[in-house]
Write a structure and sequence with these properties.
272 residues, alpha/beta, Cobalt-precorrin-4 Transmethylase, domain 1, Methyltransferase, Cobalt-precorrin-4 Transmethylase, Domain 2, 5-stranded mixed sheet
């Protein structure tokens, strides 16, 4: 029968363990959901990228912890399935939200390929784009697109097409993985594409290491964004044609001014 399927997860074997794909948010316990904290507390084994695990040491105490370096995502996922198949409850940690440029997709790809009967749950977290937008004010109040500039898994030609399409459609654009030590030109090319469609004075917010001790916030413009420090811990948010700056904040109007004529209530009140 085609259409809606209410039997999701019916092949899971209750005798096996559980993989909880946990999003730890922007990097500290206070920026994690209670559900995420609870999953880590109940886990027999916690697996993750060392940099992310180092941000939550208090939640690792008394746990079996398997940490590894960047670019070892497949190994971490395979280890999670092996341990869960042996009856363990595994917390597979992702920074931010596990379903956004993170581990959830890979977990399900492997599960589908192997027809795994291990139980799987995805526990959301505060994504980098949310945490960084909050630091900047309200830059995502209208339609926006998130685009990663990393071409490790996506051809650069495809990334360029997506940048051009999003820029031409006047989306606010959040750039993930904007610049690494080896990959320095992609952010330059991304800016060039933006300038084909947007004024150089368009506000740009750059938040690095949001909510961490080394957090930095820069509010600049398309013309001057490359003068700011940008690295792999940064998220770059480029405004649309209506975005403006005010008192150090970045604001993208939702359209209330035109719809409700803000200021009328105040004016009417003076006439009473």
């Amino acid at each position: 029968m085609e259409g809606c399927n209410s039997s999701r997860g019916h092949k899971a074997d209750p005798a096996l363990g559980l993989i909880s794909v946990v999003g730890t948010g922007t990097g500290s316990r206070e920026n994690m959901t209670p559900q995420a904290v609870n999953a880590l507390e109940k886990a027999d084994v916690i697996i993750g990228y060392k940099t992310y695990l180092d941000l939550i040491p208090e939640l690792l105490k008394g746990k079996e912890v398997l940490s590894s370096a960047m670019m070892q995502e497949v190994d971490r996922c395979n280890a999670s399935f092996e341990l869960a198949a042996a009856g363990k409850n595994v917390a597979l940690v992702s920074g931010g939200d596990p379903g956004i440029y993170a581990m959830a997709g890979l977990v399900f790809e492997i599960a589908a390929k192997t027809d795994s009967r291990v139980r799987i749950e995805v526990i959301p977290g505060i994504a980098a784009v949310n945490g960084c937008a909050a630091r900047l004010g309200a830059p995502l109040m209208h339609d926006f697109a998130a685009i990663s500039l990393s071409d490790l898994l996506t051809p650069w030609e495809m990334i360029e097409k997506r940048l051009d399409a999003a820029a031409s459609a006047d989306f606010v654009i959040a750039l993930y993985n904007p610049k690494s030590k080896k990959r320095t030109e992609h952010i330059v090319k991304a800016r060039e594409i933006m300038l084909r469609h947007r004024d150089g004075k368009t506000p740009v917010g750059i938040v690095t290491a949001a909510s961490r001790e080394n957090e930095s916030i820069c509010l600049t413009s398309l013309d001057h964004m490359l003068e700011a420090e940008i690295n792999m811990q940064s998220t770059v948010i480029i405004g649309n044609s209506t975005t403006f700056s005010w008192n150090g904040f970045m604001i993208t109007p939702r359209g209330y001014k035109d719809k409700y004529e803000l200021g009328r209530a105040e004016k009417d009140g003076k006439n009473e």
